[in-house]
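Researcher: We plan to redesign the surface later, but first we want a full-length starting point. Tokens attached.
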């Protein structure tokens, strides 16, 4: 039974690096993050916006894609190589929380040959050193956070730059209410409820394009915090491929649909149809209605709920939610030899 789970005991035993304190401190990080990069002046109108990074450090690109109302193309590049369309007129952000991500450093070096005004974001590392050497703008973030939990610091400085260029709507008035809402105990409690539902099952996270960045952040958190596989997709695209994959499914799945009350009518119909088809295949389905007065508030609220779900699920699996041993092993294997 759910009420028999002693989360306080699980937290004492398995949250060895105090991820709980990191999550509790996230609402206060919004105001701090708003001060980073606010004085950085960028002139002209770019031909495209390119965000280059890996893992949680690339999430700002997905968030910008959800919030942008501009006709300027937005490219999120998660690779060793830069996009072919990158030009000297592009607005380029290079993002690596650690500053030592090999793929991101490779993209910086390639991009610098074409665009010498690219903007980098990190908590230090080689990226900061290269920026200092090349005299390119660098936004320094607070250190010692798990990269996936530094998303306010990684994202808000970029949003401020784009706001100052009139490429996204002003979101600053949404911050106070958002912070107040995120401090409510209900998000932490909702995290426990859905951690219990997901325990022992493979999570499938669905959303419309309006909340796609949040859905993808859920996947990142479930992978890195709870050390569990997770799938993510958007509707209606999922209805043209993924939904058929449950005909011969051989693993227990739990589907969570992130809902937005401003979804267009065709998307609403697609979600209802998806629920029906999945349930017919024996898939458990639940919805979370994301509340907020703006897309900005809804997006970050949805992300915060996912933070808590993955945290409590990690503890259910007797896993330290901070450590990422497999990722660390991969990085060691691809690091340059010295």
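Model: Full-length starting sequence:
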């Amino acid at each position: 039974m759910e009420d028999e789970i002693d989360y306080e005991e699980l937290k004492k035993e398995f949250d060895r690096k105090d991820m709980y304190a990191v999550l509790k401190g996230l609402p206060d990080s919004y105001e701090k993050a708003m001060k980073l990069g606010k004085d950085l002046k960028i002139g002209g109108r770019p031909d495209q916006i390119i965000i280059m990074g890996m893992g949680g450090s690339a999430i700002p690109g997905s968030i910008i894609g959800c919030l942008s109302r501009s006709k300027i193309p937005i490219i999120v590049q998660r690779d060793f190589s830069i996009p072919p369309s990158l030009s000297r007129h592009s607005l380029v952000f290079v993002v690596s929380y650690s500053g030592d991500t090999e793929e991101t450093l490779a993209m910086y070096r390639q991009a610098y040959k074409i665009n010498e005004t690219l903007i980098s974001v990190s908590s230090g590392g080689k990226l900061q050193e290269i920026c200092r050497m090349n005299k390119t703008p660098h936004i320094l973030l607070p250190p010692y956070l798990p990269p996936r939990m530094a998303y306010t610091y990684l994202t808000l400085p970029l949003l401020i730059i784009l706001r100052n260029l009139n490429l996204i709507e002003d979101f600053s008035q949404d911050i106070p209410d958002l912070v107040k809402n995120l401090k409510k105990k209900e998000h932490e409690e909702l995290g426990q409820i859905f951690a219990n539902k997901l325990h022992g099952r493979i999570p499938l996270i669905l959303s419309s394009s309006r909340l796609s960045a949040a859905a993808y952040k859920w996947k990142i958190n479930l992978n890195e915090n709870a050390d569990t596989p997770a799938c993510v997709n958007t509707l209606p695209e999922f209805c043209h491929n993924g939904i058929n994959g449950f005909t011969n499914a051989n693993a227990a799945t739990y589907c969570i649909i992130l809902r937005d009350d401003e979804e267009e009518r065709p998307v609403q119909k697609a979600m209802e149809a998806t629920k029906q088809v999945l349930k017919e295949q024996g898939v458990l389905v639940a919805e979370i209605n994301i509340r907020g007065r703006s897309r900005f508030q809804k997006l970050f609220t949805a992300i915060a709920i996912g933070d808590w779900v993955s945290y409590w699920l990690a503890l259910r699996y007797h896993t330290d939610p901070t450590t990422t041993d497999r990722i660390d092993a991969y990085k060691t294997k691809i690091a340059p030899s010295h």
